Amino acid sequence: MPSGLDIARVSTPLGVIGIIYEARPNVTADAAALCIRSGNAAILRAGSESLLSSIAIANALRAGLASEGLPEDAVQLVQTTDRAAVGHMLTGLEGNMDVIVPRGGKGLVERVAADARVPGCGHLEGLCHTYVDRAADPQMAIDIVVNAKMRRTGICGATETLLIDAPVAETLLPAIASALIDAGCSLRGDDAARAIVPEMEVATEEDWRTEYIAPILSVAIVDGVHGAIEHISTYGTSHTECIITEDTATAETFFTEIDAGIIIHNASTQYADGGEFGMGAEIGISTGRIHARGPVGAEQLTIYKYIVRGTGQARP
Fold first, then answer.
1. CATH code where residue 229 lies
2. 97 lies in some domain
3. Is residue 41 part of a domain?
4. Facing residues of 307 across strands?
5. How far apart are CA 225 and CA 242, in angstroms?
6. How many domains does the chain have?
């Protein structure tokens, strides 16, 4: 600096991270490894469905730490499925926990958001949209939409609402709908969509706000990219939004005006994944506006501090 000070910003761990999750024991390995890699300690609380597998994985991780001369208590697993344990974690364990991360269904995430006495990181819902623009490549649109919905319907990056630009709806929607139905997807549409594909069920107001996590897709006809942006702004959860178009200016408008952790152009929303982002793994997707946003990997599990080195400076 002009003052002669040497100032550096240095990454530091968040501290002790509590991860509360439910049915998937792979979270035990992923979360613990990410915490270790980023210099944090992890306190893991698995659900009853995955407890025995999670205990085995955590014991293996602890043994590996000990064999390398590292503190095995950097990874700890709560050995009970009693719900009272979650309550203790949410209080911050008398100041011994720095961050809480929920990995599970809406009920768990809502409880953490309501009751946690320490900062949290995560998302409530992954209500993702794919918008097919008038300048979309038709075959690309079909392929992406089917993948975005049906590759894995139970993940937070699955598309839950399809938006189609009005000028191409009559020609493109039947082909997309046919491909989705053939893949086993049930469709719920607005009046304009059902006029084109009558076999769709009627979409209610609640459908636009629902993360199905199932082979069900809502469909709406919109007036251009601004109509899509308006719909997403009303119903989106700031998780992942996609536009399919060959018009780069339209894509840039979408990028600029959509508020989401991840925005995708001409690719499936199923790419909303830390592994696909080169992070190796993720502890979850964050839709918050402070600190981490999008996939939360090792880098996002750190904060920073400023190191200032002087040579005797006194500020005038």
1. 3.40.309.10
2. yes
3. yes
4. 8
5. 11
6. 2
Give the residues across from 189 on adjacent strands. Answer: 202, 219
The whole-angstrom separation of Cα 137 and Cα 71 is: 54
* Under 8 Å between Cβ of 162 and 130: yes
Q: Measure the CA–CA gap between 142 and 149, rounded to whole angstroms.
A: 11
Torsion-angle region of residue 151: left (phi > 0), alpha (psi -120 to 50) or beta? alpha
Burial class for 152, CB neighbours closer than 10 Å (0-12, 13-18, 19+): exposed
> What number of CA atoms fall less than 13 Å from residue 284's CA on the CB side?
27
Stretch 304-310: mean pLDDT, rounded? Answer: 87
Kindly state the average pLDDT of the residues 304-313: 87
Residue 278 lies in a domain: no
Length of the chain: 316
Q: Is the pLDDT of residue 259 over 90?
A: no
Alpha-carbon gap, residue 243 to 130, rounded angstroms? 6
CA 232 from centroid of its chain's CA atoms: 16
pLDDT for 115: 72
DSSP class per residue in 6-40: EEEEEEEE--EEEEEE-S-THHHHHHHHHHHHTT-
One domain for residues 99 and 221: no
Looking at the fold, whether 100 and 134 belong to one and the same domain comes out as no
Residues 30, 69, single domain; the answer is yes
Which distant-in-sequence residues (6+ apart) come within 8 Å of 49 by Cβ? 22, 23
Q: What is the pLDDT of residues 142-200, one digit of tens each?
A: 999 999 999 999 888 999 999 999 999 999 999 999 999 999 999 999 999 999 999 99
The CATH number of the domain where 37 resides is what? Answer: 3.40.605.10
First to last CA, the chain: 15
Are residues 162 and 40 part of one domain? no
The parent domain of residue 49 ranges over 6-121+296-308
- pLDDT, tens digit, for every residue of 213-244? 999 999 999 999 999 999 999 999 889 999 99
123: nearest Cα among 286, 281, 293: 286
